[in-house]
Amino acid sequence: MSYIDLHVHSCASDGTMTPEEVVDCAARAGLSAIALTDHDTTAGVSRALEAEKKRREAGLPTPAVIPGTEISCSWNRDGKETEIHMLGLFLPPGNSGVQKFLDDMISARDARNREILRRLAADGIVLSEEDLTEGNEDTVITRAHFASALIKKGVVSTADQAFKKYLASGGRYCPPKQTVKPQEAVSLILKAGGFPVLAHPMRYHLSWKEVETLTSDLTAAGLQGLEVYYSSHTAEQSRKLRELCRRLHLLPTGGSDFHGAKKPDIHIGTGYGGLRVSELLLEDIRSHLDENCMDFSLMDEGGEILENLAMC
Ligand code: AMP
Ligand code: MN
Ligand code: MN
Ligand code: MN
Fold it and tell me: Would you say 216 and 190 are in contact if contact means Cβ atoms under 8 Å apart?
């Protein structure tokens, strides 16, 4: 039996390993496939694909690299906003629609990051861009980077303190993130020919009823997969999510949410130790994509399918 990990971060967002190191690490763990799913970016994907190719050419065992991203979204239910994350798997590298969408998200992040820097500085806590990027200029700066910088400067001693005191979204120092609706993210991923998956459904502090509502609302919008297997899910939670998949005709996926040294207890492929994601899940996703391959370039402005090339 081969194992995979469909939720992995590199230093293109808030992971600590380069895309090449992630591929090597997955190979050492004996994984047959990984999806690189950095927050709101696909910037690490081409490097990971190149690393896979090099390993193959050198005759080394290598995981297949699946291009992806993890898009930050906001779900509005009865006026209450909840941040949720949408994984886009099998995104064609360089897809212009995806690129433009993510570029806009990153511009909004840049503006928010500058505002956090300004508000901190106004209270005498001066951080530079370099403190945040740590020499990796291409990285998408998240609040996790701010937390690391605040620890390094000795302003706080743990990430938890940093988030509580300085990085609460909508709090004194941190404006809320510009949000996109999860339905928009689903539609973007589908149009690009990718496979949209609701990430870590049990991490949103929602009741089970709300998880069901969220998942079925998104299924109506075209969601294809649910992250059933995840580092922090209990066996019982995975069982319930698997059952939800069956009911809604979604495909189960699984991943660790590996971040390298930023989340040192989470190991690629095995999470906190108990996670195993079978390669068979990936085969089901691949078959689904082959069977449902549609040419969305034939969609008109309003999104109506003019001609549905069901098979290709
Ligand atoms: P952002 O996308 O800029 O809002 O930042 C979100 C990042 O911060 C995610 O990658 C989380 O892993 C991390 N994060 C959020 N809350 C916490 C927390 N309380 N402690 C540690 N990391 C957190
Ligand atoms: Mn993260
Ligand atoms: Mn996430
Ligand atoms: Mn993640």
Answer: no
